[in-house]
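Sat 14:20. Reprocessing the chain from the morning session after the first attempt stalled halfway. Input below, unchanged.
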Amino acid sequence: MSTVPRAPLPAGAAALEPAAVAHVSHCLRTLRSVRSFHRTDVDPELLTFVLDHAIQAGSGKNRQPWRFIVIREPAGRASVARWYLDTWQRLRAARDEAAAAVPDDARQTTAAATLAAHLGDAPVLIVVCFLPNPTNPADFFGGASVYPAVQNLLLAARAVGLGATLTTLQAFDTATTAPAAADGADDRAAELARRCARLKSLLGIPGPAVPAAVIPLGYPRRPFGTGARHPLASVTYGERWGHPWPHAAGDPAHPWSGAGPHPG
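Finished this time. Tokens:
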């Protein structure tokens, strides 16, 4: 949908002006993973703007269990880049050895390999950490209290012309020589901590904190653009799974749809 729908608002409700909504829509539709950056430095005030919008995200019980490590010094970026490349190479080797490996998407694999080789070229690396507790552990549901802040960060960066991409390679780091964990919930948390140990040691991240994302950020080498997406009608149901949502535009059988032009 490229036009802004207008509907009567109930008392007390408020909406942005249509032009503002159109620009928000454009920002959302052109938010893409950026893996190639100009080496131009990013002004700290711009980073502060981006991070200040990241922390406006919601979280369970408003605990705000996020912490951000901003790495700008060349030596720090180089250290994280070496860890990232080593972890990527170990992961690729393990997958290549798997007898029943599913064929990779060649384009995505090439893009990921390029990022691994050039992560240190990004002028800024932001490591987002999550502070779990017994009622909000570092699991799928606990992520709901940290990844909204990551998404806010990505959107705020896009709004000011910065590109970024969310990576979670730390969850696949198998270099730490400690016993593998079993299958219980506590054991899964211990396994995640084991896999994140190298990155935590590198950055001085304390015991309970978990690195949730490593985000390279900077000015993109290529223009932002829209990406292919499945039509809304093919992924949205009404009332029950499988029942069509009658208001969704697009042909459910058609695999991809475009995103629409800049609002001007």
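The CA atoms of residues 68 and 128 lie 5 Å apart.
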